[in-house]
Amino acid sequence: MRDEDEAIEIILDHYRSPHNYGEIESPDDQILEYNPVCGDAVRLTVRFQGDVLSDIKFVGRGCSISQASASILTDTVKGKTVSEISRITEEDILRNLGVSLGPNREKCALLAYNALQKIIRRRKG
Ligand code: FES
């Protein structure tokens, strides 16, 4: 298990230099998710190849936790199947971040995750 200082460094790295930042042209699906409390937002565009999430990109604005966790999420799920992604839990996301967050900041960390799970539910029909 990483220690919290290392986890914070990783979060700041993702915030400063987000991975998979941008928009996929002609995506198979897209979604805009808001945190109504603060107005921060993440927009995901995705591409599927059969059952596999072959590409995912995000754009957004908001706090370091919401934007870094969107970046980390895109790295984690790219190349996974729809059913693998649907089995990822909120606890997995929070544990993977490696920092302890209060309930309000947990919403920040789950913004992109919640958006992606909506896409995955639509995909499963
Ligand atoms: Fe808005 Fe974190 S403060 S998502």
TrEMBL record:
InterPro entries linked: NIF_FeS_clus_asmbl_NifU_N (IPR002871)
SUPFAM superfamilies cross-referenced by the UniProt entry: SufE/NifU
GO molecular function, one term: iron ion binding
Span of domain NIF system FeS cluster assembly NifU N-terminal: 10-120
CDD domains: IscU_like
GO biological process: iron-sulfur cluster assembly
NCBIfam families: SUF_scaf_2
Protein name, entry field: Iron-sulfur cluster scaffold-like protein
Organism in which the protein naturally occurs: Thermogymnomonas acidicola
